[in-house]
Amino acid sequence: MNAPAFDHNLYAGCAAQIISHTRELAAKGWTPATAGNFSIRMDAEHAAITISGKDKGRLTEADIMVVNMANDPVATHHRPSAEAALHTHLYRRFPDVGAVLHTHSPTQTIAGLLHADEGRVRLRGYELFKALRGHTTHEAELDLPVVPNSQDMDQLIASVDAVLTQPNTWGYLIAGHGLYAWGRDINEARRHLDAFEFLLGCELEMRRLRGAGA
Ligand SMILES: CSCCC(=O)C(=O)COP(=O)(O)O
Ligand SMILES: [Zn+2]
């Protein structure tokens, strides 16, 4: 008898973690109109990932599937996230990455558009840098990369590879689209996602205040 394609108990545990976090992220308004996609690495060859087009605030285990690192569905007829290639790209490139989260908050969407020409959001002097693995002080300058949006995943991956040059970056923005954040597990990826959202929100607010002559 053929061995099962993957460990179902491991898959069910990953699905439960994704569901728990997506409920909270949707409640924040970061997954409008089915936007967002979420995955956890199961092993060297498989990841649990959200099925394309689902309401990410109402996921059940049936809305999550398994892909291999070539983005092929495993043991299902469902279609994975349209952006599955962006998740497996990070799993292939960074062996220690265990989870990838993608959201479309207004802050993330606008910040990417505002900084599209620069190709980065330059952050300086934030205590919250310390929420990002490998960062230990506010006395730093951190560039969050921004890449142009595209419907061609290979083009997006090439853009990301060109800007992911610094260690401990943990995220990137797609202009007019949203934020990708990752970590060694889903809780660390969530901490990074929350930290980038806060930092980008501060930058937008400072821009607003300066425009008002503050
Ligand atoms: C309706 S948002 C457009 C698609 C997108 O950017 C996204 O994050 C969700 O796509 P998926 O295929 O993962 O549902
Ligand atoms: Zn998206």
Written description of the protein model:
With 214 residues, the chain is an alpha+beta fold. It has a single domain, classed as L-fuculose-1-phosphate Aldolase, CATH 3.40.225. The chain has helices at residues 8-27, 84-93, 106-114, 153-163, 186-211, and strands spanning 37-41, 46-50, 64-68, 99-103, 120-124, 141-147, 171-174, 178-183. Strands 3-2-1-4-8-7-6-5 form an eight-stranded mixed sheet, with helices on both faces. The chain starts with 7 loop residues before the first helix and ends with a helix.
Element layout with pairings:
Elements: H1 8-27, E1 37-41, E2 46-50, E3 64-68, H2 84-93, E4 99-103, H3 106-114, E5 120-124, E6 141-147, H4 153-163, E7 171-174, E8 178-183, H5 186-211
Parallel strand pairs: 6-7
Antiparallel strand pairs: 1-2, 1-4, 2-3, 4-8, 5-6, 7-8
Zinc ion is lined by residues 35, 83, 102, 104, 177-178.
Strand order of the largest sheet: 3-2-1-4-8-7-6-5
CATH topology (level 3) name: L-fuculose-1-phosphate Aldolase
The overall number of domains is: 1
Number of strands: 8
CATH architectural type: 3-Layer(aba) Sandwich
What is the straight-line distance between the termini?
71 Å
Helix content: 25-40%
For this structure, what is the CATH class? Alpha Beta
Tags for this model:
alpha+beta; L-fuculose-1-phosphate Aldolase; 214 residues; 5 helices; eight-stranded mixed β-sheet; binds zinc ion; 20% strand; 36% helix; globular
